Each structure stands twice: as C-alpha cells, then as structure tokens.
Amino acid sequence: MNRILILATLLVVAGCSGDDENAPLAPPLAEEVVDASGGTLRVPDDGITLEFPPGSLSDATTVTVREASRAPADVIGRAYEFGPSGAQFAEPVEFRFDFLAGDLADATLPHELALLRWDDGGWTVVEGALVEAAGSASNGTLTVPLQHFSTYAVARVDGVNTFYGTFGFGPDDVYAYGRESDGDGRIVHWNGNDVATAHTVAGGRFFDGWGAAPDEHFALAYDGTGRILRSPDGTTWTEVATNPEALLAIHGNGAWRIAVGYGQTIVENDGSAWTAATGVPTVPGFPVPRPLHAVVVTGPGEAFAGGDDVLLERSGGAWSVVDLGNELTARFTVRGLWARAADDVHAVGWETVPGQPREPIVLHFDGTAWTVEQPGASLSGLLNGVWGSANRTFAVGTRGTLLEETAFFAPQIVQTNANLYDVWAHDDTTLAFVGAEGIFTHPGVSDPGTGGSGDCSGTADVFLDFRASSGATSTLDCNASRTVRGFPVSVREVLPAQAGDFFDCDASQSPCNGSIDGTARGADTFLFFENCSRVSIDLSGDARTLGCVEIDVVDFCDDGCDGGLGSRTVAFLYDAQDQLIDVQGSLLSGAETLELDASSGRAARLDIRFTYGGLEGVRLFFD
User: Fold this and answer.
1) CA–CA distances in Å: residue 332 to residues 128, 207, 307, 394
2) 540 and 487 in contact (C-beta within 8 Å)?
3) DSSP string of 290-317?
4) Which residue among 6, 65, 102, 462 has its CA within the 20 to 30 Å range from the CA of 374?
5) pLDDT tens digits, residue range 103-159?
6) Taking the model in full, what pTM does it have?
7) Which domains does the chain have, with CATH numbers?
C-alpha cells in the first residue's frame, strides 16, 4: 500500500499588535453582575453580546468587557478582555458578534470570520463557531460557545497570503488560485520548472478554477462582485459573467459548467451562456439562503452542490435538497465535492453540535444513497477539499490535514500546521494542494517524497521478521546492533535535529534507556517504541540492487498515549551518500504497510522513525 509524504514549501507572514503582558487594564466597556439565574452583557456600539444561561455561574459575579492591549492581524474592530479573566463556566456562555456589511472591509467574506483566543503567547481559533449571513456582503452574526474567559478577538482567518483552490491539466501544468500577501488576488502557475503569476485582480481574491482543457480554463474572482473569468492559454483572461454574490467553487462535465457561492447562488452554462439557476429550493428550517462552498458536475445537467446546512442535487433538470437526516443529526457544512463517477461521489466538511467542537465528516454517494465514511483515525483538523484519481481519493483540511483513501481514509503526514483548502490529483501518487501561509505544493515540490508504486508484488527476496510469535528474541538493546537475516539492525534515538521533522518528538526523553520489549504489547509484535525511536537497517553489505521495500507497522497506542492520536511512523530510504531516495509516512490506527520505491538510486540504509508503535517486519524486494 503506497503512502504519500509531501513536504510543503511555506511562505509565512503573521503578526500581532499591542503585545504587552504588563499593560494596565482599560476601563470597562460594559459591566454587569450575573448570578446563577443567568444574564446578558452587551457592548452595543461594537455589536458584542455575552449570553449567560442559567447555571453557567454558581454565584453572583461582576463580569466585564474591556478593550485588550493586544490584537491579532486582520482583527475586526478591536480585541476584548473578558473578566474575571480565567473564569470557568458550568454551561457554555454564548458570544455573539452582530456585524454589518460595512464592518467587513477589504472584500472579507462572512465565512472567513473566526473568534480567536490568546493562549500561551499566540492566537488560536475557538471551535464551535456558527456564521449566519444572507449573502457575501450583508449583515450577519457570528456565535461561539465560550468555556472560560480570556482575551478574545474577532478576526479574518487566512485572509491574505492564502490559496483557496488548485487545479491542473497535468503534472507540469498546475494552477493555484488565491490572494497573496500584497492584498491582490492572484493565479499562479507551475509549468514543471517554475511558478509564475498568471493573472491578478487588484484588492480581491481568486477562490477556485477548473477547465475542460488548457484552452478552456475558468477562474472565480471576487472584489466585491463575483466574477467568472475564462482563458484560452492560462495567461490571457476575459470576464464572461458577473454576479452580485461571491462565487466560491466551479466544476464541469461535458458541455456543462456550474459555479456556486453565497446567497445559495448557482449559475449554469450548458454550452451556450451563463445564466442563474431557477427553482433552487430553500433549505427547511433556514429563512435565509445558505452559502454554497462546493460543486461537482457528474454528467450533463447532473450535479451536486454543498454548503452550510445543505446538500443539493441537480437531476432531471431541477435542483432539490438531499435529505441527510438519517446520516447527520446536527448542523453540517460541505466544503468539498468530487466524483469518480455518477455512482462514486465524495463530500467532505464538518458537523457542528452546539457547545461542542466541530467534527470532520466524509460522505459517500453510491448512486443510490449517501452514507458517512469515518476517517481511519482521529483527526485534529476539519476537512475543506477533496479530489481523487482512478484508485485513490485525497482530502485536505485545517491544521495541515491530508487524508488518503484506498479502502478507508487514513491521515498522511504533512510538514505544516497551516490550514489546507484544496487538493488536486493527477494520478495515485501525484497531487498538488494549497492553503494558508502561501502554500502551493505542486508535483515538483514534493519530489523526492511522493515515491512511486514500486514493484512490491510477489514474494519478498528477504523478510526481516520482528514478531515475537515467530520465535525471534523478544528484546533489542538500545544503541546496540544485532543481525537479522544478514542485515545489521540497530535502534537509536531520533537525532535532536530530526525531532521536529514530520511528527512531534520530545528529544529530551531518550527511548534508549534499556531494552525494548514488545511482548508485553501483544504476541505478534517484536519492537515497540514508547517515545521517539529510529530503527536503522544497514543495506550496504548486499551486492544486489534493491527495487522496493515494504514495512509492516502496528499501532498499539491506547487513549492514554500521544493524546489518543495513535502511532506516527515515517520511513526513509537513503543511498551511500545519505541522499534521500524515497520517504513514506503514516499516522496509524491499526496495522498498515508502508511501501518505498528504491528504483531511483542504490539503497544503503533504511531508517524508520516511530512515535508509539510496533514494527512487525520488513520485506526487501531485489531486482
């Protein structure tokens, strides 16, 4: 089973202002005594309201809102210190921000708003936010449950230096659509050698792009007006349609093209002209139109569109609401759609239960019904985009989340914690993804690291067996070596310089303080690693040419270790000059096989880095 590890190139811009830990408290903007019966505190001029439900406080407490001495970049209005600072609530307190269209300057869209909290020297997004707005430039509300008081600010998240969409016509012809740090919307293009700007829009941004062929390429821009642009060559762009709402996603099939966006806007082109869709149904229970974030056209006149609290289907010439009540019981957002065929469609996004953190969701349509597919391991991020190839489906999301599906979705390791917004795949092992902090990872950036399929079929020439049940010795001394089937095998601690690579390691906790014994973790594992360990196998003594490597690894991590995330494993194959030949990685929950392609160089050493995991065996396939 292939595992794809892609190293993202980052261009980081961040900032905050007024960061003074010892600044005196500002006078209260609002103050109220709230007791166990609940209450309300408002800052009317700022549109801020705090709703205390009954039981949130046990005793009468003076609660205050003050202007904070620090604020994040892209703050909307000002930051606030809610007091008493650190106060905990038995029931979540609702924070509500009532914003006016004029409050969101610089073409900011409602769904880009978030509530940030100052934690441990940095700003973090508070989970559970809900945004309600009738359109891309209308009044609305942002509500967020608060568990305790601290310093908070409403801000635009990933507003600049961010790419929101990507699409390609081949591995050497890939585009990214977004907004760079200069504040202008920009389309950039990878031609196999360089990344260059293909088009700009002053003061706006690009959200998505798609094309049937390189000479029919569409892009969606927004600068206060939604715009559809068309290019015959990727450099010359002509506006072909406008819309008062921001258009966020575009896709096509055959002669059909469909774009969707705010205000439940759907514009269609059946090969003749762009026109607004008619008869788009309202969503039961929601009086205002829902923003649509994703669309996939599965055939001529057949499509799905998804957004906040809604999944729509176009069939038989009309749009209808898909009933997901049997699959999703809470509010939900669809942020990405992709179809391998009309009976093989994926949707990704998240589900929101009031008062709880949002949970990522993956939905699949088999031509008859939609069902929920749970990711193969717990995730720390939400899902924003999905794309696939003939055999695999990939999804990306917040906090550097990259998922790969073969039989199930399993997380892959990406060297970034930035939010990822979209992904495009050329084939099973070649993909591009984009996101915040200027991330545009195209096929050229990822080499070497995506590896290849290799040729690991058939019987291994050599199997290095590390299972206790096979009769092998059940321990291996740290910082020592033993020979397995003629190959020297040693266990070393992860080098300090490598501790932050690909997974978090505490390099101060050396795993090499005795023998590593896997028998206590199960009869079928030999090597088990509690912290950060590096298994090194010396291949240099074998005169044969290695073609492929398979590594069987197992997660024996329960909920009490590593935050319940499971095992992190990355395998590196080097030549005699310590040049990387291939690298594959996985975040496990259960058993898995990593496959490395050795065909591009003469392998001399295999390094396998672990955090909480077991090594069962290594298969070496020689040419």
Assistant:
1) 11, 21, 8, 20
2) no
3) PPEEEEEEEETTEEEEEEBTEEEEEETT
4) 6
5) 776 668 888 899 999 987 788 888 888 888 888 888 899 999 999 999 999 998 877
6) 0.70
7) 27-67+75-156 (2.60.220.30), 162-446 (2.130.10.10), 462-622 (2.60.120)
